[in-house]
Amino acid sequence: MNNFTKQKTSRLGVMGGTFDPIHYGHLVAAEMARSEFKLSKVLFIPTGIPPHKDRLDISAGEFRLEMVERAIEDNPVFACSAMEIERQGPSYTVETLRLLSKIWPEHELYFITGTDALREIFSWREAEEILTMIQFIGAARPGFDAKDFLQYVRQEHPEIVDKIHYLEVPALAISSTDIRRRVKNKQPIRYLLPEAVRLYIEQKNLYR
Ligand code: ATP
Ligand code: MG
């Protein structure tokens, strides 16, 4: 069997994000995607310098990575990778995906996003290349309807319709932006994210 005919035997979920900080919106999306699409693992990959973010005050990679580690500690099928944080220069998903396919050639890759990020995928660097390599799972996110986007894909890009999957999840109107704002304003963030992450934010004095 050569490389081209080799069967992909299992599915790996990949969730990229700034994770500044990680919260239950991310974790619920990852867990529901894992179960619905029978993913053997979900790999969380915090971005290095995100090409799409114009925030200048983004927390150091080591803090964001540590928060992800703490958040997924109790789930044996969740893992995280520092590959983007350790890479020099901006993080482009296409490079990450190329590397992952090299490391795990037997895995089919499923990239998990919220519906806000899903709507943007055509603007990603080498979007067409990405769409030939992997499958996308767009988890419902309050305020970001995917209907128009999915209609657009059906009409304009019928060749990839079956690679883009919409996933209904219990909607959580939680965002990292809101959590950072709450910390700054001394409002509660408990129950929006794992307690271990909340304690770390307190300990490191993040988002003050
Ligand atoms: P920020 O407010 O800083 O943009 P965020 O909450 O959007 O943070 P990101 O790190 O930007 O979190 O998101 C990483 C991925 O997780 C994206 O694909 C995003 O769509 C998805 N995501 C984030 N929050 C939710 C949520 N509440 N429900 C579903 N998906 C989510
Ligand atoms: Mg975001």
From TrEMBL:
Domain Cytidyltransferase-like span(s) in chain numbering: 14-182
UniProt catalytic activity: nicotinate beta-D-ribonucleotide + ATP + H(+) = deamido-NAD(+) + diphosphate
One GO molecular-function entry: ATP binding
Keywords: ATP-binding, NAD, Nucleotide-binding, Nucleotidyltransferase, Pyridine nucleotide biosynthesis, Transferase
Top-level class of the enzyme under EC nomenclature: transferase
EC number: 2.7.7.18
Pathway membership: Cofactor biosynthesis; NAD(+) biosynthesis; deamido-NAD(+) from nicotinate D-ribonucleotide: step 1/1
Gene Ontology terms: biological process: NAD+ biosynthetic process
Its job: Catalyzes the reversible adenylation of nicotinate mononucleotide (NaMN) to nicotinic acid adenine dinucleotide (NaAD).
Family recorded in the similarity comment: Belongs to the NadD family.
Protein name: Probable nicotinate-nucleotide adenylyltransferase
Organism the protein comes from: Desulfosporosinus acidiphilus (strain DSM 22704 / JCM 16185 / SJ4)
Gene assigned in the entry: nadD
